Amino acid sequence: MLTIDARCTACGLCLVTCPEGALVPARHRPTVVADRCTDCLACIEVCPRDAITEVPA
Ligand code: SF4
Ligand code: SF4
Question: What's the CA gap between 12 and 15, in Å, rounded?
Answer without folding.
Answer: 5
